[in-house]
Design a protein that fits this description.
The protein is 72% helix and 1% strand. By secondary structure, the protein is mainly alpha-helical. The radius of gyration is 22 Å and the shape is globular. The chain starts with 13 loop residues before the first helix and ends with a helix.
């Protein structure tokens, strides 16, 4: 691995990409400030890398002003550095997963051997295994399994009939969810969006109303990611209305209702509506209290622990480091909580500490996240931008070594 004396400073920051996009429009910094709603001084600091451009709400404001996708500012997806063998292995399956996604809805045209090998019980085991790898932050293993698994599920969905066919589509939806998360965590947002569309399609084929609503949770997230807050809000409101109309709701319904309130709180936070964000978080807490346990229905983790984690994420989204740090200190994660979720919590803590001016704590939190989920942490846009900003003002110790692994120096 390179040493601090071997580093270069050629990595492009979000601010530099922002400046390049501004030049493409032939705008002055003053014009960008006026169009985005941020001050001229803020635009200068972002472009010069003296202020971290890591908050999605801010990135979205600039992306909408410049009529570009947010990834044109964040630079995702990122190519793992040469020394990051695990990272290179993790992205090795991206193209094969993409090909499997593109085949969705087409006649499977299975071989005789493929047709004879259809076994829903075994496919269910393989889907569970792939999702367990993802939750354990073993993205290389999940990615390696997904192409063949998706193909075999597409064959099963094509050949089965009746209840078996609906079961096959349910498994296919779950595998598409795994693919979506795998691609999203590695920064391949366009491919993740494709996977989300497949989740919706396969879920509809199950005929299960709750399964279909769960798929719309991901659909709302796609609009949220590009700043289409009204559309995301419409999807969420429709789902909450349907869930509210269910008489004598069981735990799956309560869990799904709570998950949608969390999504609504994030949507409001990204739209800089703090009051509404807090209101939805409170409703999610009510659902968590009613549930009384952590659940993982349709890969949507919800319960008291998840709600506590979001109480940290939301103030981070709104740039309130002090509140986020205070909330983080109250969180107690179960010993068996997934590495995926634990790492994301540490990322939120790192960002909270950074916004609170506690840079040593921020570095420690990012390192904790990296130990749990190295590939996902190194591909996380906010981690890369925050670490890059810190490096531009202080190059030493653990920070610079982390920056080398991220490829931001």
């Amino acid at each position: 691995m390179p040493t601090p004396t071997d580093i270069h400073t050629g990595a492009e920051s979000n601010g530099q990409r922002l400046a390049r996009l501004r030049h493409r429009h032939r705008w002055t910094q003053g014009r960008l400030a006026a169009e985005s709603g941020y001050s001229l001084e803020a635009v200068k600091k972002f472009e010069q890398g003296r202020r971290s451009l890591d908050r999605p709400a801010v990135i979205l404001a600039f992306a909408q002003a410049l009529d570009c996708h947010p990834t044109e500012i964040t630079g995702a997806p990122y190519v793992p550095v040469q020394a990051d063998r695990d990272g290179q292995d993790a992205v090795a399956s991206v193209a094969a997963v993409r090909r499997a996604l593109l085949r969705h809805g087409r006649p499977a045209r299975p071989t005789e051997a493929e047709a004879a090998a259809v076994d829903l019980a075994d496919l269910e085991r393989r889907v569970l295994e792939a999702n367990l790898h993802r939750q354990a932050a073993a993205l290389t293993k999940a990615g390696a399994e997904l192409p063949a698994l998706l193909r075999d599920l597409q064959v099963a969905a094509d050949l089965e009939t009746g209840d078996a066919k609906r079961r096959a589509f349910g498994l296919l939806a779950s595998a598409y969810e795994c693919a979506m998360q795998y691609l999203y965590k590695l920064g391949h947002s366009s491919d993740a969006t494709l996977a989300t569309e497949r989740v919706l399609w396969a879920s509809r084929e199950t005929g299960d109303p709750l399964r279909i609503l769960a798929a719309h949770w991901y659909d709302a997230g796609e609009f949220l990611t590009i700043g289409e807050h009204d559309e995301a809000g419409h999807i969420i409101d429709e789902a909450l209305t349907e869930l509210g109309a269910i008489r004598s709701p069981g735990p799956e319904t309560v869990s799904l209702r709570g998950a949608f309130h969390l999504k609504a709180s994030l949507n409001a936070a990204r739209a800089t509506d703090g009051t509404t964000a807090v209101q939805h978080l409170a409703k999610a807490q009510e659902a968590a209290d009613e549930l009384g346990e952590d659940r993982n229905d349709w890969q949507l983790q919800f319960g008291p622990t998840n709600t506590a984690l979001w109480s940290v994420s939301l103030p981070v989204e709104m740039g309130d480091g002090r509140k986020a740090v205070a909330q983080a200190e109250k969180v107690r994660l179960p010993a068996d909580y997934s590495r995926e979720r634990r790492s994301h919590f540490h990322i939120d803590c790192g960002r909270a500490y950074f916004h609170n001016g506690q840079r040593e704590h921020a570095v420690a939190a990012f390192l904790d996240a990296e130990r749990l989920a190295p590939q996902a942490t190194r591909a996380h846009a906010a981690v890369r931008e925050t670490v890059g900003t810190m490096i531009r003002t202080r190059k030493r110790g653990d920070l610079i070594e982390l920056g080398i692994r991220l490829g931001v120096v």
